[in-house]
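Deliverable D5.2: sample structural annotation.
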Amino acid sequence: MTEVKSMAENKKRAKRSVFHRERKASAPQPIEAVARGMYLRISPYKVRSILNTIRGKDVSEALQILEFANKKSARLVQKILNSAVANAQNNFKLDVDSLYVSRCMADDAPRLKRLNPMARGRASMMFKRLSHITVVVRDKSKEETLKTTAKPTESQEIQPSNESEVQ
């Protein structure tokens, strides 16, 4: 009986938590952080003009643009951008000075449908639009190191050694 127990103990695998910790340590470091504002009470059309101005800019420059933009959408995007920067700093240990806005988008959310009274007892639908705003920030320094360490792609075609392989 003791022999069976000792054999079972020898065959035991590492704990699941240890396995995941090792896998997490060997995983590539993330270079981007995401923040989303969901169900915001503003039309996506109005937000996209602000998002187009900050797309591709450094975080500090984007925050300055949002600070001085005289629009409601700028305040909302500013909060989301600050959240994305905080996510990058706290969750992924990215350097705030090397972050830039890589992607930002405003998507349509479910609309609030309201009735607008019309003449002769009729009613028409009025849609109050909502939006989902997503801001993604990336780390320039880690992105450059990733590009330099990446293997070249196999875009070169293999040349046949003789004419019989060509036909």
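Annotation notes: The mean pLDDT is 86. The radius of gyration is 27 Å.
The annotation will be released with the project's public dataset once the embargo ends.
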